[in-house]
Amino acid sequence: MHDAVTTPLSPYASDGSPDRCEIDTIRALAIDAVEKADSGHPGTPLSMAPVAHTVWSRHLRFDPATPDWPNRDRFVLSIGHASMLLYSLLHLARVEEVDRSSCKTGKLAVSLEDIMRFRQLGSKTPGHPEYRLTTGVETTTGPLGQGCGNSVGMAAAERWLAAHYNRPGFTLFDHDVYVLCGDGDMMEGVSSEAASLAGHLKLSNLCWIYDSNRISIEGHTSLAFSEDTAQRFRGYGWNVLEVDDANDTVAINEAIEDFRRTDDRPTFILVRSTIAWGSPKANSEKAHGSPLGADAVAATKQAYGWPADKFFYVPEGVSERFSGALHDRTAPLVSAWTNLVGRYAKEHPDLGQELKSMLAGELPDGWAANLPVFEVDAKGIASRDSANKAQNAIGAKVPWLVGGSADLAPSTKTLFKDGGSFQADSYGDRNMHFGIREHGMGSVMNGMTLSGIRGFGATFLVFTDYMRPPIRLAAIMEIPSIFVLTHDSIGVGEDGPTHQPVEHMAALRAIPGVDVIRPGDANEVSEAWRMALEAKDHPTCLILSRQALPTLDRSIYMPAEGLRRGGYVLTRDTAEPDVILIATGSELSLAAAAAEELLKEGVAARVVSLPSWYRFEKQEREYRDDVLPRRVRARVAIEQAGDMGWERYVGTDGATITMSTFGESAPIEKLQEKFGFTVENVVGVARRVLKEIRS
Fold this sequence. Notes:
14% strand, 5-stranded parallel β-sheet, single chain, Rossmann fold, alpha/beta, 22 strands
């Protein structure tokens, strides 16, 4: 909670006022950019410019000269199709561009030339805002509801950071999170999941501003949406405010001041607006995603008193005033914060060093020193259990590893020992309880990760169907979110096909930039967690078993460190292999047992552990050819999942022992026998493949 802003606000109705000029500049830039691109629609930027302008010019603690200040307020445009609204704000604010190393490039984040190249190949102004691509974009939005979910993670992260690092006389974290959302966000289920969680957690630093324009692509929202949204959010436990006219900047300002005084719940500001429609043709097709057309552009500018013959026009003094308001308000805060951190490091050296590492995206010295090493055990341990040991060992050294599960912690084994529960009265604790909200969990996690915390979320692999969008967006944003996915196969047994993932491995591997790791024993699990924490530019999916996996004898087999390269030769070969058995997860020990039987028959069988295709494909060709020699065409892949993708590794002459149907409800031993995951079947298939190639 911050003191309310008391800067005088020019009434919007006063034509010619500086505020009105800035607002209309935002509108005109959006109109011209969309018209030049002949793509997109300026409707929401036109109607919501007064709202966004009020937030930025009067309240947002964001310094254009230091756009990556850790304690900045976040502004999330969940309605990503209104991207020109954000690009116009970034341009007028003269936000300075920083690269991935937080070094200034000497350029504006969004120049006028960038706006002229809206939606064009290689531009910094794509159709929907993209994190990393454009400085000042806090998260990638476009799929509706995701920005809302991310914002809950950002607000929760601020609460954790404040509880963990703030000390008397040292308020390092106290920022707010503003979200601009619309009717589409309200209809998507993920926003409901996230809003429910935010209300439960009483995240009073979170403000959603809802553009209730009652229009969607098919037409008026009454076609499919008639609920009382304000009442819904009251039910979630939010502070609900209503503004009847998006043009009433005085009322908008008062609502935001109300938010900043509220300290016991998040705030939902419902703003009623009238969206601008496009050309008559667009209207007839209900194409709410179309440009206005030349005639409508001229008429719109005339209505605003804007010169119709000027394009991409920024009147003199507009940028200076708008940018100056942000800088003058925030630059002193940035300077004071920097000095405060310096004194903090002297008075609290351990926390100071920890904070420095976290903000730099680095890990503490010796963070992996206590990763467990597991002894040989024929009975073994479920990889979900060995993963919990690895997670807790890492957590003891990396306090900002924070996460939880979608109401499944006893099954996913993802609790921190003595980690407490992150709740409204215990924001410094580490165990998140997302409830049965997989989709919301994924997007909240991404918001936490975007705030510097190493966020993870856990559920059963089969339920990634419910949270594929945030996994995909984590990959697009190149952020290191961690998804812990257990109950990875038909090994779930009696729970049956509804809980036995079959196609999910292939679906996750199909997402570019996602490291999907399915470790084969407890020592590979430790390595998998190590790799997940070391990741800086991609998300990781840890695929773990419910059933016990034998812990392999590494004096016989190669060290588990080979997993760091994605795939490695498990067996210590003494001769050129006749056949290669490739496996992941619970099937690794099966492949090893089958190889032993083949060796007894005089067949030189190599076993390759291939838990991470993502990492294996990044290795040099020489290494990959050494692990899977091209001359050895007899190959068998073994995985309790679909066969899609395995042809890359077995070729046209090889075979797969995989799942081509859904599973069944039965004890695991019966299922393994039915679907061919036995030593006898693996040996038989290997013999057949070898015979066919030799003949």
